[in-house]
Amino acid sequence: MQGIEQAYCDVCINALISAWRELMEASAAETLRKVPYGKGDTLGLDAIPEITITGRIKDFDQHAILITEELDNQAHRRWPTDSDPVKQPLMFFCDPTDRSIQLERFFKQLSSNNPVGKIGNLMAACEPETMWEDMFETPASITAPSSAITCVRKGEVIFSVILGYITKSIYVASDIGVYTYKLNEFSDRSNEKLTFADVTHKGRELVFPSIRGLNYSPDNCKRFVTFLGKEGYLENFNDSKLFTEEPDSYLHHREPPGPPRVLYLSELQQQHGPVGFILSNGEKIGEWMHWLAFVRYARNEDKRQALRAFEISLERPWTKNGMLMSLSPAYSIFCRPEEGKTYLDISRLRNFERPSQFRCMMVVLPHDNEHIIHVLQQHLYREITDCF
Fold it and tell me: Which end of the chain is more exposed for a tag (fewer CB within 10 A), N or C?
């Protein structure tokens, strides 16, 4: 990354750590109460991180555009109008609190005997990762609540940062690779001095292994993770025609996390069952935008590009809250000009009153998952790996 891009990555790392610290220092009662923030009826566990992140980024660059689900109407007023990526402003896509429904349940259980205790202290008094996995699913390094920011500059995804609220793990995907780093306790102020250089020098590189490893099985290629937890998503998935047989036996998780979903394809999942691909099943942009940096920069055990991505375009797309769940190339933000470098055309989202509601169907999978790649190519779903 260029110097200015590393500076922005430092700011995003600091913003996520500050948001996590503020959440840990809040009482359980504060995190669980409803507040009239953003869309209204928002819980403190959503509002506290978003306010902190917004403040940190705006303090550093008041001209940067930050897109969150609660405040995307404010970002819309300054949205770029020019499709030329060089003329588009710096943009950050943020999911301040992923899996907030599950986090609410977790905090209620955590604070059942002490509702005014600090969340961080309550977590320090137990084994939060084990508690999470007992209540929900394994591994907590992937499935637990998190916060994420992705930077898009001049039509390119530059980096993504994900921080796990319960695991204290931070993941950074950049042109150096994908690195993970374990934070100290929330009360340790040295956390806020963490930089991109620290993560890459003191952390460890995360491997995204090939699907055709030592324990290869053809069925492993079909194992997948996607969201099927609400009305309309199953119908949308079925129309993708990824399976000719009943897919339920290959479904690993039907209500998975958003930004960390790409980590199912990493070494973190190896002891918890194979996953051959992940899918954005017509989900909002804040769920899948963060995967793109991992697709671009993740490496396998041979230090080669580990992941590929395809966009699914249905002939008769479904809609959710008035938004198309899949897009033809003509409406896609993944643009391939006849000449020049491919890029993300973020200006197209200006046409939407709520840009954060923009949806897409996207498959991300290991580079050697030939079975699913063949299926995708047979249906003429286009590869977008080189579009970002």
Answer: N
